[in-house]
Amino acid sequence: MLGTGQKEHLYDLVPTLGHLLSASARARPHKPLVLFGRQAFSYGLVEEMACRIASGLRKGGICPGDRVGLFCINSHWFVAAYFGILKAGACAVPIHLLLSAEEIGFILKDAGCRGLVTYGALEGCLDGISSLVSSIPCRIVVGEGKIPGARSLDDVIAHEAPDPGIPALNQKEDVAVILYTSGTTGVPKGAMLTHRNLLANVDSILATVPFVETDIILTVLPMFHAFAATACILTPIAVGATIVAVPKFTAEEVIAEIERNSATVFLGVPSMFAVLASVPEDRRANLSSLRFCVSGGAALPAEVMERFEKRFGVLIYEGDGPTECSPVTSVNPIGGRRKVCSIGLPLPGVRMRIVDDRGQTLPTGSIGEIVVAGENVMKGYLNRPEETKEAFFGEWFRTGDLGYVDEDGYFFIVDRKKDMIIVNGMNVYPRMVEEVLCRHPAVAEVAVVPEPHKLHGEVPRAVIALKEGCSVGKAEILAFCRQHLGRHEVPRVIEFVPSLPKTPTGKINKRAIARKVSQAYGQ
After folding, report:
1. Residue 199 lies inside a defined structural domain of this protein
2. What are the phi and psi torsion angles at 183 (to 5°)?
3. In a domain, 113, yes or no
4. Starting from the edge strand earliest in sequence, which strands make up the sheet with 330-331, in order?
5. If you write DSSP's letter for every residue of 457-487 in order, what string do you get?
6. Alpha-helix residue ranges (DSSP H) falling in 184-232
7. From residue 361, how far is each of 242, 342, 388, 390, 397 by CA, in Å?
């Protein structure tokens, strides 16, 4: 439909996201859209499934504007259900697969979901909220498993008409997807993304990232996540590419799927690249089919980038963007000049700047908060007008990231504003300390969090997971830090752990680590 350097805007070509799949399926009905479990599911088949699901949702009482929860693994089912919800004129509410029943229940209630499409094998995750699930009027279950009162997807596909009719919607105002933030600052908030927000972001990605129709995109990032939904589902569909759906990340599975399907693009988070870079040299791993990789979601340590690229001969381009921005805001130019540890240049149509606490622009090289404006920026947080107001300086969304822009316009993130550690009144940015520690040859992963201190207020605590087979003492780590860091930045406490906790999207869960430290001090 479109590709890199396109002149027309995607949002001028299709009125809603529901029409996006329809248009691409008409152009290539027999081409594989999703490869899953060694089976191929064509554009035409997934489009038909989505239309039948839309009919089933309507029959179940779902009206335009209603919210429908989507609790499903990476698969053709997820893609079909996602677009089925959109084709019904409803709003999709993707849910993290690793959340507790209580957290899932919060999202279903907060969003006011009147529908739920769930993967049957995940039914145990809903045991603690069975009464809430039963109160949702329209329920569809995918695959094995039973949800009381739910209709099976097989029945929906077999008996509902593939009605392609999509309700007339306001592209700029009607919400297509509500994505819940991880709640690192408290209760999770639902970011409302309109059809225009997401179409504009796909537009911006295609103006920069060279996705083409012949691409085969390895999709192991959870499809419920903003990065995966936009970059691994919507964008490939816009150009007519193929998606390889992988439900769970392991190095063995990802390597096997890339080799089996000759995947050309891999998008991941830093922890995935770290694991792949640590695959033993004697383990055969041919990733030569990849044209490029993109890393997002968290800081990519330079050491991880170097090891991965040396091991596999494929370049990684770092980008970034928060859920509230649909989410991609910047990326290092693919095939162009990369800057290590930079999140790159703003995408076309996306504006970024560095501001102080009053929203005033700071000079080049000065550290401040990164703010973003553009058609990709969310409508607001569901049911939270005050939080929405606090999240903006006028039209500029406050990302909460501290960073700076250099003389070439490349942006760099120093740290999350809320993660900054203050030692004797001096700012310490954990991300910079982590970057240094990751350069130590024995360190696999690290998280630096604040530890209360009677004299200094706070001091850095480094929680470290070592590479397999490596051994190192605290004294050596501290000596290494003193070579590369200021005295106030050197961790006062070193803790070795077998592995670091992760969020459902594979990021290091620093909130859980910091909470454990606070609890140890009775806070």
Report:
1. no
2. 75, 30
3. yes
4. 39-42, 32-36, 242-245, 216-219, 265-268, 292-295, 316-320, 330-331, 345-346
5. EEEEEEEEEEPTT----HHHHHHHHHHHS-T
6. 195-206, 226-228
7. 42, 20, 21, 18, 14
Residue written as tokens 């590479």? 467
Q: What is the DSSP letter of 201?
A: H
Strand 216-219 with 265-268, pairing: parallel
- Of 166, 194, 222, which marks where a domain is finished? 194
Q: At CA 178, angle to CA 384 and CA 350, rounded to 5? A: 90
Decide if 91 is inside a domain. yes
- Residue 460's nearest CA partner among 498, 513, 508 is 513
Question: What b/e string do you get for 290-310 counting C-beta neighbours within 10 Å, with b at 16 or more?
Answer: bbbbbbbbbbbbebbbebbee
| pTM (two decimals) | 0.88
475-485 tens-digit pLDDT:
999 999 999 99
Question: How many domains is the chain partitioned into structurally?
Answer: 2
Q: Amino acid identity, residue 203?
A: D
Tell me, yes or no, whether 202 lies in a domain: no
> Rounded to 5 degrees, what are φ and ψ at 146?
-130, 135
- 185: domain CATH number is 3.40.50.980
Q: What is the pLDDT of residues 366-376, one digit of tens each?
A: 999 999 999 99
Contact predicate 507/297, CB 8 Å: yes
Q: Where among 172, 194, 216 does a domain terminate? A: 194
Instruction: Give me the domain span that covers residue 425.
Output: 420-520
